Amino acid sequence: MSALRCGRGAAGLRRALWPKGHPCFLAEEGTLGGVWGRKRSLSASACEQDRRKGCGHAELLEVLEARVRQLQAEGTAEEVMVKRVAMAQAPEAGGIWPPRQAPVGAEGAAPVLSSHWVQKLDKDQQLIEKRLQQLEGKLPKIVEKSTWEKRLRMEPRLLSRKLAGQLQQWERKRPQSPWEEQLARLLQEAPKKLSREADEGSESRLEGQRQKLLAFLECCLLTGHLPLAHHVLVAQHSRAPQQQLLTLPMYNTVMLGWARQGSFKELMYVFFMLKDAGLAPDLLSYAAALQCMGRLDQDAGTIRRCLKQMEQDGLSLQGLFSAVPLSTGEREELLRAVRKARPAFSPQPPPPPPPQVNTSPLLQEIYAKDPSVSYPKLHLSLKELQGLFRQQLGVEMATTVTVESVEKAPLLTEEVLQARKTLAALRAEWESVLSLELQETKESEARAAAEGRPSLFPYLCLLSEKELVGLLLQTLQALPSHGESLFFLAHELGVRVLKRKRLRNQVEELEQRYFEYLHLLASDTQIGILKPHPAFTQLQETAAERTLIFESTEVPMLCPPLPWTSPHSGAFLLSPTKMMRSLEGTQQHQLLLERCPPAELHGALDALTQLGNCAWRVNGRVLDLVLDLFRDKGCPRLGVPAPPTEAPRPPEGRQTPKGCLLPEASPADKAEMRRELARRLKVAREMQSLRADALYRLSLAQHLRNHVFWLPHNMDFRGRTYPCSPHFNHLGSDLARALLEFAQGRPLGPHGLDWLKIHLINLTGLKKRESLQTRRDYADAVMEDILDSAERPMTGRKWWMEADEPWQTLACCMEIAQVVHSPDPTTYISHFPVHQDGSCNGLQHYAALGRDSTGATSVNLSPSDLPQDVYSEVAAQVEVFRRQDAKQGVRVAQVLEGFISRKVVKQTVMTVVYGVTRYGGRLQIEKRLRELEDFPQEFVWEASHYLVRQVFNSLQEMFSGTRSIQRWLTESARLISLTGSAVEWITPLGVPIIQPYHRDSKVMIKGGLQSLTFSSSVDTNQKPNTLKQKNGFPPNFIHSLDSTHMMLTALYCYRKGLTFVSVHDCFWTHAADVGVMNQVCREQFVRLHSQPILHDLSRFLIKRFCSDSRTSKSMWVSRLKDTLLSVPPTGTFDLDQVKRSTFFFS
């Protein structure tokens, strides 16, 4: 829907890249021209073929040099600097051009050019001059008024001879026979056919074309081109083959447009076409006709006959006001017309919606009307929040946010300044050329529409030319050097254009509704690839501009997010956001949510709203320290990525050292050098990726450091919640978490300092097996190191750097230092978030589901004086098995003596609950063994096989109930998949879940420049992928349970006035409120698992997959039903013990 998607626009954008006076940036055929031109050849150009032979770079450079000399000979040498050619060379750290430069102008430097290149230079020069003359007004421009508007046809061509005769007769009788009379008679005409019969295949093929045509007509109305919409409708209707594309909503769209203008004759034409197409008018058709009569103040007789015909068609008068979406003004005109015929009529007010009451027993207290409950307020006044709303509105209307980069500023050399000047000149020129090309494209597309074909014309009119050119330049500015799919760019550009146009009219209504919401929060109230030219990419690198551009949805919000009220309404003010994020192209999740009763989603919607309502601010003290390291050489040990200059360099020329090139070098030496080269390149790519991620995060932190901001949330298909803004949030690494703190502070109170100390020691990882009191005492013992870390983080003893989470440890040290130095620690206002982590939370849910006493004790569901460490227990059990095998002479068991530790088995134990297979577990253990310097590396493969087997055996003994539930879930999913369905279930909080795993299908997208073929695993028409369905069900089901527990905790904490956020099974709140949060967390876990979760799941799956009489006799369905009825038995563990367990979350 942009100029990028049409031939003329693409050509214009190509021509815009031909800069004035800088010939070294011109695109040669086969590079830029092949991508941006009107037509794209699938075969390589001559230059492209030469380059593939290895001599293209040199030849292209010689051409550029020859172009410089040619322009010098024409007297334009002042604008062409020799270093422009040098700018096309590759920098030391990789690049596109070879590191070679011939001395321009030196004797003997000019190669002999072939006639092909001479002709091409002349042709390019003429094209440049022509375009420049056109821009500067030296060529006469076409000022003649467009003629396409004169060719628009209003009178329809009817296929029915009877109707065509009536239309001609009534045309001759006007004005004696008014159109209103003819409408009343026409309505009595029975349609030839009330529906079109078509096979399912043809209907599906036509549906896409119908959607495009309807969108074109609606866009014409939106941009004020109603006559054009009418003309295209007439043209399509006049051709019998095309008429099958037309649907009643298309005729109604155009009729409603004429009704708004009071143009009854044109509305009558559409009614003739509607009858000619064999369609029966519906409520919207009658509403358009009556509304038009109201505007024209027509006589009551015609209106009366129209209403009578409507009732004969089985349509109710009341339905005009209750079932037809009309604006207030349109309803008034409609009511005026109706009251002319029936003065006593008064539309009934819409009935009140039925009460939407959430029936979940887990949420009874949340939605009970309790006047004694006082929900928390934000620390900002209503006026401040209204100001923040307007700031955020401006951000989203602009669609992008420009952020100053925190990368070390380059030296402003003459080359950098000249590059920036050149970029500014190029962009100014592109703006002019794009504007001119946009005018030409609109004229061309308008002519296409005037020929009766839907085109891009109305879409190009949605915004002013200046705005559209600005969006195009934004797209080019953000284009990566490796290019981007034209389909993706066109889609993104179209979304921006439509969003800016459509929502501009909704801002006033949004502001009114949002201000009402603020009263509850305020403190003082209740296809193809588009790729930039390598020379342009090099110019950008040389200019080193210090700006980053983000989409508005990629940046935290400057005001509280919109509350979630439905699966598609919430979060950002103007940018549409889905409640449930999903893979591109999947709709099954959204369809399930739409079919779900709204009241059943209230718990999840309100939990997302509550999580997004937490106000944040940047921890500036930590940010300053991180920026100093980042701008220097980084510090990978502390999680600050090093710059690319610190990456291991491949051997020069990406070749092996000379020794390995010698004939006598052995194949083994050559293979080793190839592996070393691959390792270096892999490390360099990883460093570059980490550096870019840190750059985005730190630049956004610097951008927001003096602001209060919010992180809107949505969820994945399992129900797990995530911030919508991807680059800067609390779900990141240790460094990312340390940069954030609550914007709203709370006094520490009597126990807040104790929780800060415990949290600090938890972050260090030093006392994991000790009691809380021991951790507090240890914090007191090292208080000198804590204060030294806070006061001299980079020059002192650097105690904080040895912690498991160093940056969060440092931030906590700084907070404790401020508390200790304050006059009264109990009144100190703390903004610091304190965490409480679940103890292997997946196994906790499994143990609770199976009431497994042994497993429950291992994961701290039972009270104990010291925390239980399931990883150490598994390692101990594996060691028992190893000793037994070593005594029996098993070689690998003997080799492993002294090497089995908690660290070796931890990752595998942690991920078994989430579905890791033995293969995946073996890879995890192999990685840990390779990190052990003393372990004999020749035994790594055999030892990893042995250990993963023993880890699974240990878990089977320790968590027998867990493994039986896991096997039941796996087998159920396997059989469901074999019946041809994807696995579905509903969480205890009422959220419908479906697994999006299907067999791969080949998808081809045809475009004007090229066709793309790719594999898709989300095609719901394909059969389910049985392997992924069965392996994914156990972990996904447990994820849906831990998400339910988190949401329940969030809602009940909010009810108690707490600030609460989470990172899945890690819950955050103020230090003063940790005790209350811990109580709520345990109570809600017990309430959740007091429900018959597995039996409810069994009943749902039987009803969903085994109740269809057509498939009930299938072998797989029969086996599935038997399996689902065999719910694993439970043990004897008492869930109430969880309420007294100190280390359940700690």
Automatic annotation (TrEMBL):
<dbReference type="GO" id="GO:0003899">
    <property type="term" value="F:DNA-directed RNA polymerase activity"/>
</dbReference>
<dbReference type="InterPro" id="IPR002092">
    <property type="entry name" value="DNA-dir_Rpol_phage-type"/>
</dbReference>
<dbReference type="Pfam" id="PF14700">
    <property type="entry name" value="RPOL_N"/>
</dbReference>
<protein>
    <recommendedName>
        <fullName>DNA-directed RNA polymerase</fullName>
        <ecNumber>2.7.7.6</ecNumber>
    </recommendedName>
</protein>
<keyword id="KW-0240">DNA-directed RNA polymerase</keyword>
<dbReference type="InterPro" id="IPR002885">
    <property type="entry name" value="PPR_rpt"/>
</dbReference>
<dbReference type="GO" id="GO:0034245">
    <property type="term" value="C:mitochondrial DNA-directed RNA polymerase complex"/>
</dbReference>
<dbReference type="InterPro" id="IPR029262">
    <property type="entry name" value="RPOL_N"/>
</dbReference>
<feature type="repeat" description="PPR">
    <location>
        <begin position="247"/>
        <end position="281"/>
    </location>
</feature>
<dbReference type="Pfam" id="PF00940">
    <property type="entry name" value="RNA_pol"/>
</dbReference>
<comment type="function">
    <text>DNA-dependent RNA polymerase catalyzes the transcription of DNA into RNA using the four ribonucleoside triphosphates as substrates.</text>
</comment>
<feature type="region of interest" description="Disordered">
    <location>
        <begin position="640"/>
        <end position="664"/>
    </location>
</feature>
<comment type="similarity">
    <text>Belongs to the phage and mitochondrial RNA polymerase family.</text>
</comment>
<keyword id="KW-0804">Transcription</keyword>
<keyword id="KW-0809">Transit peptide</keyword>
<dbReference type="InterPro" id="IPR037159">
    <property type="entry name" value="RNA_POL_N_sf"/>
</dbReference>
<keyword id="KW-0808">Transferase</keyword>
<dbReference type="GO" id="GO:0006390">
    <property type="term" value="P:mitochondrial transcription"/>
</dbReference>
<feature type="domain" description="DNA-directed RNA polymerase N-terminal">
    <location>
        <begin position="390"/>
        <end position="613"/>
    </location>
</feature>
<dbReference type="InterPro" id="IPR046950">
    <property type="entry name" value="DNA-dir_Rpol_C_phage-type"/>
</dbReference>
<dbReference type="GO" id="GO:0001018">
    <property type="term" value="F:mitochondrial promoter sequence-specific DNA binding"/>
</dbReference>
<dbReference type="InterPro" id="IPR011990">
    <property type="entry name" value="TPR-like_helical_dom_sf"/>
</dbReference>
<keyword id="KW-0548">Nucleotidyltransferase</keyword>
<dbReference type="InterPro" id="IPR043502">
    <property type="entry name" value="DNA/RNA_pol_sf"/>
</dbReference>
<feature type="compositionally biased region" description="Pro residues">
    <location>
        <begin position="641"/>
        <end position="650"/>
    </location>
</feature>
